[in-house]
## 1
Amino acid sequence: MRVDVVTIFPDYLAALDLSLVGKARRAGLLDLRVHDLRDWTSDRHRTVDDTPFGGGAGMVMRPDVWGRALDDVMGAGGGDGGPAAHLVVPTPSGEVFTQRHAEALAAEEHLVVACGRYEGIDARVVEHYRATGHRVSELSIGDYVLNGGEVAALVMIEAVGRLLPGVVGNPESLVEESHGAAGLLEYPVYTKPPAWEGLDVPDVLLSGHHARIERWRRDRALARTAQRRPDMVAALDPGALDRHDVDVLAGLGWVVDGGRLRRLEDGPEQGPGEGTSGTVAE
Ligand code: SAM
C-alpha cells in the first residue's frame, strides 16, 4: 500500500518510523511518503492560509495551494490505469473513524491524507475532488478538537497499517480484538506472575482446558461490552449468538426481542420489579 501525507509539519509523522509501522515500511509492505504542503506555495513567505471570507476568528487553508499539492500527490501512486487515490481528510466534522473504516481503507492501494491546521481547509477542496470523481473520506478520530490533522493521520495510518498482510506477526492476534467481527470488546488478558499485589489470575486460565478458557473469555467479552459499551451490545446480531451467549446477556439485563437485542431497563413495556432478571424472550 502507498500512503502519502501532506502537512505543514512533516516532522510530526516521524513516529511512523517506529514500531510495527516502521518495520512495515522498511520491509516494503507500506510505502509511506510525507510531503510539506509549503513546497506547493508560490510566494516568498510560503503562505498556506488566509483570512476567512465572512469574517471571524482564525485562518483558513488556501484551496489553490492544496489543489496543486493534491493534484501532484493524488496522481503519483496510481500509475497507468491504476486505481485513483482515496483522499482522506481528517476533520472533527467528519464521520467518526472506526475499525470498519480502517478495514475498508486497508483494502485500498493508495491513500492520500490531507492534514489541516488553523480553522481547517477551504471547503472547496473536498468539493472539487469529489466533483472530479475522487473518493474522499472526511473522518474524525473523536468528538474533540485537535490543533491539526497530523495526530489523526498517525491514528488512522497505524490502525490501517496493522491490518496490512504481514505487518502484525501473528494474524490470529487480530481476530479476537476489540471491535473485530464479533462486535465485542476483548476479554481481559493476563500474564506472569500468576499472583501479583494480592490479585490472582483467574483459575480457568491456568487450567489448560481450552474449551473452558474459550467460553470464559467469551463470557468476559460479553460482560465487559455490556458494562462499557451498551451501544455495541444493541448492535449485535442475535443470529450470531449461541444459547449460552443469550443466557449470559440475559443475566446482564439484555433480551432478544424482535430480532434484536434490547436492554430490559430501556424497554417501553418494562413494569415494576423487572430488571436484570435473566428472562430470555426470543
Ligand atoms: N474549525 C474546525 C472545526 O471546528 O471543525 C476545527 C479545525 S482544527 C483546529 C484544525 C485541524 O485539526 C482540522 O482541519 C483537522 O485536520 C484536525 N482535527 C482537529 N480535530 C480533529 C478530529 N477530532 N479528528 C480529525 N482531525 C481533527
Note: The radius of gyration is 24 Å.
## 2
Amino acid sequence: MTTQDRVTSPARSGATAVLAARDLTKHFKVHRKVRGTTIRSGVVHAAEDINLELHAGKVAAVVGESGSGKTTVARMLARLIPPTSGQIVLNGEPVGRGHVHDYRHRVQLVFQDPFASLNPVHDVRYHLSRALKVHHKARGREAVDAGVADLLAKVKLEPASQFVRKLPHELSGGQRQRVAIARALAAEPSVLLADEPVSMLDVSIRIGVLNLLGELRDAEGMALLYVTHDIASARYFADTVTVMYAGRVVESGPSLEVTDHPSHPYTQLLLSAAPDPDRASPVVINAGTIPSLINPPSGCRFHPRCPYAMPICSTQTPPDFEVGADHTAACWLRQVGQGSPAGSPLPADPPSC
Ligand code: SF4
C-alpha cells in the first residue's frame, strides 16, 4: 500500500469507530513520606481531554516525546489503568467498570519491550497455548498445537517446529516481538494497541515488524493504535496521526495532511528532528525539554518552548482550530483572523512577545 492510498481518513468516510476515547483524562497522585506519614504532594497531569477514534482496518498513530502522555492513553484504552474522567466507547457502547475479561477478548495490547513482556522461563508454546486457553480459543492438545502453529504462521515464524520450544532469550528481538504479537492475536481481537512496538528493535528489523502489523490489519480487519515517538514512521504506517505534547493533543488529522502541512509549532519541531534524506541538515526550531507535568505551564503548554509565543499563549489554553478537512491544531496562531491563516506555514519570524 502506498501513502497515497491512505489519503481518505476514516472520520471523513463516516465509519463508526470500533474504539473511541472521549475526553479521557488521567491524573496520577504523587505521595511522599514526612516523618513516617504519607501525604499527597502533587498531581501528575499525564493526559487530559484526549479524544481519539480507532476504525476497523485502519491505523491511528499517537506521536509525541517521552512524557507526552501517549503511553498513558494506550494503557487507559487497554484498561490497565482507570481514567480519572472521560469515557471509553467500544463499538458504540460506553465501557463500564466491570467485564474486563470480556474487554480483553476484543482489545489487546502489545508492549514496547518484548523481552520484559515474555516470561523468560517459559517457551513459545507455553506463551501462545496459555493465551489460546485463557481466551477459550482452543481445548485439547491437538487443537492447541494447531492454534499455536496457526498463530506462528500469522506472524511469519515458520516452520512452527523451529520456534515452539525456544525460550525468549533464544530468539532475536524481532522474533520476540512477533511472538508477543502472536500472543495478542490469540484472543482474535478487533483492536490491537501497539505501544512503541518497534522502538526497542534494531533499525534493520523495524520495517519488517511494521509491515507485519500492516498485513495483519488488512487480513484481520483490526483497528490498530500505533504509539510512537517517530513521526516519520507514523507517516509511513498510519492513516491518521494524533500529536501529543505534555499530556494534551496539539494536532490531529490524516497522516499525510498532518506531516505535509503541519499546523502546530510542536509538530513542526518533531518533523524537523526526523531524518529526511532530501534535507541537507536537520532544522530544529527550539529543542528545549518537556515541562513538568506536576506543574504544567499555564495556557498553551508549549509556550515556554515556542518561538511564536504571544501573550495570550501563556494565559489561555488554545482550543482545537479546524485547519483542514478532519485536521485540527490547538494553536492560537490558527485562530481565524489572527496570526497565520489556517493551513499556511507558520510565520518565518516569530512575533515579539
Ligand atoms: Fe506557540 Fe502560542 Fe501556538 Fe502555543 S498557542 S504553539 S505558544 S503560538
Note: Residues 264-265, 300, 302-303, 306, 308-310, 313, 318, 331-333 surround iron/sulfur cluster (CB under 6 Å).
